[in-house]
Specification:
Chain B: One of its GO terms (molecular function) is metal ion binding. Chain B: This is Ras-related protein Rab-20. The complex is a heterodimer of chains A (877) and B (257). By secondary structure, chain A is of the alpha+beta class. Chain A contains 30 helices and 30 strands. In chain A, a hairpin with a 3-residue loop joins strand 18 and strand 19. Chain B has 257 residues and is an alpha/beta fold. Chain B has a 6-stranded mixed beta sheet with strand order 2-3-1-4-5-6, sandwiched between helices. Chain B has a single domain, classed as Rossmann fold (3-Layer(aba) Sandwich), CATH 3.40.50. In chain B, strand 2 and strand 3 form a beta hairpin. Classes of the chains: A alpha+beta (877), B alpha/beta (257).
Chain lengths: 877, 257
């Protein structure tokens, strides 16, 4: 509970003061610089020189040298002594009389001519330490007189005292303190504040001064410390307001003083020390026969009846450290912050930071992580101090050494946890979250490598998901330090990422391939093979691509080929030459096919070799499927569809070459027809389709396909050709209902063709071609459509004509409007051609708006060898 | 543990008054620390500095014991709000407010706001038994009602049965409202011009947190104008006069030191 804030150091021992004379007691003391004055009950003043001596161990002691003692000749105890150092006078109260003695000689100062140097009938007096009067050569003194209920204000000069003010009080005062104009008085039944300048007064609180000795102690500007009922030390300011919470003394307090941030009080047997910051009792010192406690210029001096002691405050830092040692974090911080105004700013900041850090470590040791974190943050802790607690986390290359003196008592985490693995785990989790939070803040400045490496190690050890996030983003993990750690925890995939981040893609790939091949165990990614393929597809080092693509292709050509097909086309990545890739893929047929498909179908590269190569691969595949027995029909169908699509769609492959490839294959007639079509050998193609395959829908489809990018005349020609092929084939039967199906089938095909695609044909030509015997009914749809088409064409052209005419008129109208000049025709004007006047409104206008007779123009046009187009006919009047 | 003053200057003062054992310290504690714990009888007084927006509000917890009665008017001096606290299970505690404590408020600001607060409502009112602080649950973990009761030694002034039975409510809300009315009359304030009784009479439970935040936050909002006025006054004269009716030659003094 207690703090050691003060130490009691003897200053003047009994022997020095009174020897063995038992009856002599100390009555009052005064200290002024090194000069200590002691007043005794036998009317002596003793003058000592008090020297501070600091031993080699730093222990403070006092040596007192007696300079003088002087009998005042009144046979009464010396009740009060006050030094007025500027005047070199001691103000003495003895036997109810205040008088002055010389500070050095202790001789009584004789009265000056103009006024007395003595005040009689005094029970108590006080010096104003904060006088309103600025005169340095006089001292303001408040005096309580024994006879009247008044307080007198005196000015004390070198050789005289002068009454300047007298104020009356409602009751007899018994103790007084003075600050500025404010008198703080203990009256018989209460305390009050009295402004001697204005006479205004403020009751503070009731107090029975007969029961207990009142204490009125000025502790600062316009603030007083008072003994209150119930053994309280109350604070009151000049306005009569308490601004600090009271401290709890014993009932029998004799004297009190403030030595910031402590309130020191003396009772019969103890010195009690309370903090003004939290009102708590901080220290108790046993002190027998305590008699006097006073503070002089910040120095607290106590006296028993026989000896004098100094209460020496321990250095603040030591007090704080003591608090921290006993884990009283809050109190230590309160004390530190409370001392802010007593310490130079820079020193305070350093101290404060350190205390915050220490506080943080104490709380950390108690696993109060939230509080610890807050203190680390406020104390701007070098995060490596924390990391260094965890064995092996700091990289070997780190230059960090713990701060000295140490911030905490722990050797390391194991020491802290005392073998409690759960504690260790909680500490580790805390560090993970803490480092995660600070790594991107300025806290990590200058030690990013240490922070990130430590974090990596923790993540790896704790099997934490964020390991990959850490490595996949900007980080400063040290490779050398991380490799063994990641290997230890089988985080090979993560290690690969780290290699990659450090530009060592080759090492990364080697490692991953070993994992993918099962040589190393790391279950981080079940799709590691796909990851490697993806990695290679966007790898900027082409040597690595060539080196490891083979491995990938052997493992799975369809996925492996993605290295080449999925390669993003960006400027950052060097491009792969397709020819090189094709050469490389020579061994991997399946992959090569996929790659060519990628080039031709996806990327639409218009290059003959790729197209031919792909087509040949298709052909080979179909042929190899055909040669199997039994043939897999489904596969074959698919393969053929691909081949046919390729043959139809592409115009780049070498047709003759492919034709040669499938020359002897009777299975690939459709493909051959397509090839003939490509060569515009339409007759051959149709021949194959109609006669060899007898596949009429394909024949029709061929016509449509082969003419798809040509004009309608070409299509018509093709369809006529097909019709011709059908009809030629059916001729030998000569009969409308041919037997045996063969020619009848062709006839039916011809009919279907006409009925289905009637619009393509030239109906007149078809009618000429058709055999005489065909029934009208058979061809009704064709004929109907042909007639309708003809009608439609006729009407359409009429409409077109009409539209063109109206458009022409519209244009003429617009043009006339453009000119904006009316063509004036009148009976007085003559025609430009015949010079006769106009007799009717119908005129023709020549270019330039010149009106002429209609018949004159007609004449002229008839006469003119060149046919000139005349413009505008209008009816202007 | 008493709160730290942190050396900030308070802008305004709120004082808790009331007989001993009505729960003044517990109310303040519940508000500042969000929990209910054993308190010992307050010696003298203590205060807590609350940061409310940009303002510092000091809340003084006074000692209810007769012994310290004399200090009350000093604590109240310059107060912007006074919380008169009684115990709903103890009629005498309400009577004491009128007999002993009302006169202490004579030193408070002339525009001081008064709240009449009946604490320990959880002992008589089922709706006050619901723990209001969401954080108190997580902080203290699950605890059953019987644990709560046994863990909380009720001060001798208000005996409570451990069985959790409701105690007889000795002071009704209407009693408190009536007291508030008499308080206004004592102050010579017009009831219509003052804050209405139903706004300024609270029933709280420091144990469950019932109404505690409402009480303090209502008061904080109400004293804001007082803070602003005080700040404006301070701009004009940096020291508050000892007795403004006689403030003659004192202003020269204020600039010294």
């Amino acid at each position: 509970m207690s703090v050691k804030a003060f130490e009691l150091v003897p200053a003047v021992e009994r022997d020095l003061l009174m020897g063995d004379k038992a009856r002599i007691n100390i009555e009052c003391i005064e200290c002024c610089g090194k000069h200590l004055y002691v007043g005794t009950n036998d009317c002596f003043i003793h003058h000592f020189l008090l020297d501070e001596v600091t031993s080699a161990k730093g222990k403070l002691s006092y040596s007192a040298q007696k300079l003088l003692h002087k009998y005042l000749g009144l046979k009464k105890p010396v009740a009060e002594l006050r030094a007025a150092s500027a005047l070199e006078r001691l103000i003495v109260l003895c036997d109810g009389v205040v008088f002055l003695v010389d500070m050095v000689t202790l001789e009584t100062v004789p009265s000056a001519a103009g006024g007395g140097a003595k005040i009689r009938g005094v029970i108590a007096f006080c010096i104003n330490e904060n006088p309103v009067n600025g005169d340095p050569f006089c001292v303001e003194m408040g005096v309580l007189s024994s006879k009247r209920r008044t307080v007198q204000i005196f000015m004390v000069y070198e050789d005289r005292v002068q009454l300047v003010k007298e104020v009356s009080t409602p009751e007899q005062p018994c103790a007084v303190s003075l600050d500025g104009y404010f008198l703080c008085l203990a009256l018989a039944t209460q305390y009050m504040i009295l402004n001697y300048n204005t006479g205004a007064h403020q009751d503070l609180f009731p107090y029975n001064s007969e029961e207990r000795r009142p204490i009125v102690k000025r502790i600062g500007r316009e603030e007083f410390l008072l003994a209150a009922p119930g053994g309280l030390g109350m604070f009151a300011n000049a306005e009569g307001v308490s601004q600090r919470a009271p401290v709890n003394w014993s009932e029998s307090v004799i004297g009190a003083a403030v030595c910031f941030p402590y309130v020191v009080a003396l009772d019969e047997s103890f010195i009690t020390i309370h903090s003004m910051l939290d009102q708590q009792l901080k220290q108790t010192l046993s002190f027998r026969d305590g008699h006097i406690l006073q503070d002089f210029e910040g120095k607290v001096i106590l006296a028993s009846t026989k000896a004098v002691y100094v209460l020496v405050p321990l250095p603040l830092e030591r007090q704080i450290q003591d608090l921290l040692v006993s884990h009283r974090v809050e109190e230590a911080l309160i004390l530190t912050e409370g001392a802010q105004r007593n310490i130079p700013k820079e020193k305070f900041q350093i101290l404060h930071k350190r205390i915050l850090q220490q506080a943080g470590f104490i709380q950390f040791g108690q696993l109060q992580f939230l509080e610890a974190k807050e203190h680390f943050r406020k104390g701007q802790l070098d995060v490596r101090e924390l990391i260094s607690l965890y064995p092996l986390l700091l990289p070997a290359s780190s230059s960090f050494t713990r701060c000295h003196p140490p911030l905490h008592e722990f050797a390391d985490l194991n020491h802290l946890a005392q073998g409690d693995q759960e504690k260790v785990l909680r500490c580790k989790k805390f560090l993970i979250s803490y480092l995660g939070e600070v790594r991107s803040t300025e806290v990590a400045n200058g030690c990013r490598e240490d922070v990130d490496t430590a974090l990596l190690k923790l993540y790896a050890e704790q099997d934490h998901d964020s390991l990959l996030d850490l490595l996949a983003t900007d980080n400063s993990c040290l490779l050398a330090d991380s490799v063994p750690w990641l290997e230890k925890y089988h985080k090979y995939f993560a290690l690969g990422l780290l290699y990659h981040y450090n530009g060592q893609d080759s090492s990364a790939l080697q490692l991953w391939i070993r994992v993918a091949d099962g040589d190393l165990q790391d279950s981080t990614r079940s799709d590691l093979y796909e990851y490697i393929v993806d990695f290679l597809s966007s790898c900027s080092n082409l040597d690595l691509v060539w080196k490891y693509a083979d491995w990938a292709l052997r493992k799975d050509p369809t996925i492996g080929v993605c290295i080449f097909t999925k390669r993003p086309a960006t400027k950052e990545l060097p491009e792969l030459n397709p020819d090189d890739v094709i050469g490389y893929l020579g061994k991997h047929k399946q992959a090569l096919l996929l790659y060519l498909e990628h080039l031709v179908l996806d990327r639409q590269i218009q290059k003959e070799t790729f197209h031919t190569h792909l087509a040949v691969l298709y052909v080979e595949r179909v042929l190899s499927l055909l040669s199997e027995s039994p043939t897999d029909d489904e596969q074959l169908t698919k393969a053929r569809e691909r081949l046919q699509a390729m043959l139809r769609e592409s115009n780049l492959y070498r047709v003759q070459y492919l034709l040669g490839k499938m020359e002897n294959c009777e299975h690939l007639l459709l493909e051959r027809a397509t090839l003939h079509g490509k060569l515009e050998e339409n007759e051959k193609a149709l021949h194959i389709l109609v006669h060899k395959l007898r596949d009429f829908p394909s024949a029709e489809a061929f016509c449509i396909w082969a003419s798809s990018r040509r004009d309608s005349a070409y299509r018509q020609q093709l369809f006529h050709l097909l019709l011709g092929v059908y009809l030629d084939g059916s001729l030998p039967g000569q009969s409308q209902i041919a037997a045996g199906g063969g020619s009848g089938e062709l006839e039916m095909a011809a009919v279907d063709l006409l009925n289905r695609h009637g619009e393509v044909f030239d109906a007149v030509r078809v009618l000429r071609m058709l055999p005489e015997g065909w029934s009208l009914q058979l061809l009704r749809p064709f004929l109907g459509r042909a007639v309708r088409a003809s009608m439609h064409a006729c009407r359409t052209s009429q409409i077109a004509l009409g539209l063109a005419h109206s458009e022409n008129l519209q244009l003429l109208h617009d043009r006339l409007k453009e000119r904006k000049k009316p063509v004036v025709v009148s009976a007085k004007k003559g025609c430009h051609l015949c010079h006769n006047t106009f007799s009717e409104p119908d005129v023709v206008c020549l270019p330039g708006g010149v009106p002429v007779h209609t018949h004159c123009v007609a004449q002229r046009v008839r006469d003119s060898p060149t046919k000139r187009q005349l413009t505008n006919r209008s009816n202007h009047t | 543990m008493p709160e730290v003053s942190k050396l900030r200057k308070p802008d305004v003062k709120i004082v808790l008054l009331g007989d001993m054992n009505v729960g003044k310290t517990s109310l303040l504690h519940r508000y500042t620390e969000r929990r209910f714990k054993d308190t010992v009888s307050t010696v003298g007084g203590a205060f807590f500095l609350k940061q409310w927006g940009p303002y510092n509000i000091s809340i003084w917890d006074t000692a209810g014991r007769e012994q310290f009665h004399g200090l009350g008017s000093m604590y109240c001096r310059g107060a912007a709000a006074v919380i008169l606290t009684y115990d709903v299970t103890n009629w005498q505690s309400l009577a004491e407010l009128e007999e002993r404590f009302l006169s202490l408020t004579d030193t408070a600001n002339h525009d001081c706001i008064y709240a009449v607060v009946g604490n320990k409502a959880d002992l008589t009112d089922p709706k006050a038994q619901v723990h209001q602080d969401s954080d108190s649950v997580s902080e203290e973990g699950p605890r059953t009602e019987s644990q709560v009761l046994s863990a909380c030694p009720t001060p001798p002034a208000s005996p409570v049965s451990l069985s959790g039975l409701m105690l007889h409510k000795q002071v009704t809300h209407e009693d408190a409202v009536a007291l508030y009315g008499r308080l206004l009359r004592y102050k010579g304030l017009d009831e219509k011009a003052s804050l209405p009784a139903d706004k300024m009479c609270f029933e709280t439970s420091a144990k469950t947190g019932y109404n505690v935040d409402t009480l303090f936050e209502t008061l904080f909002d109400l004293v804001l104008p007082s803070i602003l006025r005080k700040r404006n006054e301070n701009k004009e004269s940096p020291t508050v006069d000892l007795e403004d009716c006689r403030g003659t030659g004192k202003k020269t003094r204020s600039s010294c030191c």
